[in-house]
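Form 7-S
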Amino acid sequence: MTRSSRAAERRQRITRAAITVFAERGYAAASTAQIAAEAGVSKETIYSYFGNKAGLLREALMSLVAAPDGSGIAEPVVKVTTSAEFRAHLRSLAMGLVTDLTKSQYLALARIVVAETPRDPSLAELFRDAIAGRVLSGVVSMVTAGQRAGLVDADVDALTAARAFVGPLLTYVLLDGLLRAPAEIRRPTAAAVDGQVDLFCRAIGATTDHH
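Output:
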């Protein structure tokens, strides 16, 4: 194992430990010493990788929405050529979003952010930057790419469209995830997500020639 691969493995081990400790104890009660013990590293190692506890929470949140199999939040799309390709990108992002954000570990961390924000407003900013900002910027890039290709109405405001795309998907996260016990979490069906994507495409003047 090379030095870089050892460092990557250690970083992943610390991140997994942080997810476990935050979920079990909450953000305020969790300590870097507890996370270090869970990961089998020193506190100094944690500081060298993540800086502080807030940096650890940010990494934990991002790790749960960046699956290596591509199911997580998509990288920004800069070019599409057909309406089918455009819709496929949107569907991939929508499915990845509702899948990732209804993971039990993610929901546990999201509850922590909601509960702790009144005491530590910086957590809300961290959450917006790590999750909400990435999701919205990804959709903005898709809509903009669609406009460049003549697939989306040129008068559509990309950020407004992004909010219109993400908002309905977050109802699944809230109503069927955050507000349910872990054993009762429900994810939308592929047909339900397809329906949301079709509605969105019609709203922004994009054709849906996949039928």
